[in-house]
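Sample 3 of the quickstart, ligand coenzyme A:
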Amino acid sequence: MSQLTIRKYQPADRETLIDLWTIVFPDHPPHNEPEKVIDTKLAVDDLIFVATLGDRIVGACIAGYDGFRGWLYFVAVHPQCRRGGIGTGLVTHAMACLKELGCTKVNLQIRAANEAVAAFYKALGFAAEDRISMGAHTERY
Ligand SMILES: CC(C)(COP(=O)(O)OP(=O)(O)OC[C@H]1O[C@@H](n2cnc3c(N)ncnc32)[C@H](O)[C@@H]1OP(=O)(O)O)[C@@H](O)C(=O)NCCC(=O)NCCS
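Result:
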């Protein structure tokens, strides 16, 4: 079996990463189109990570650091490759990179009904916190 490697995204990964995110997040709204997500992220920094088995991209995630908190987004493992530790490897790698940047705490949001993903993050040491998550789109400002 090929060895799992986790590394930063490279331009040659683009099409395969778009395919992966399209498979894993088929109902993404237009503002979360994978092409757009990659381009807007790379305009700010390069914290996109991919997990590869041989030359195949089997997982990916985005990390963010705003100088205060870190964030994780779009953590995805190909449906055929789940429950083998790839998701854990990706998050662990992203957390270590954020720590290296000086980040001391990482937050993330998941849908309240997504118990499987909550179990995944709990297994990684994340805990639900007593906060109300709020958001607004900038277009109204
Ligand atoms: C969540 C996700 C990234 C997990 O990836 P993965 O490679 O399967 O995760 P791991 O193999 O590292 O799982 C580690 C542990 O997390 C827990 N876990 C993972 N998936 C789980 C599930 N579906 N149900 C319950 N617990 C789960 C288990 O404790 C697991 O350990 P075990 O397999 O020894 O029991 C993957 O299921 C996925 O891509 N889901 C769809 C996308 C998504 O919703 N992403 C998160 C929102 S950004």
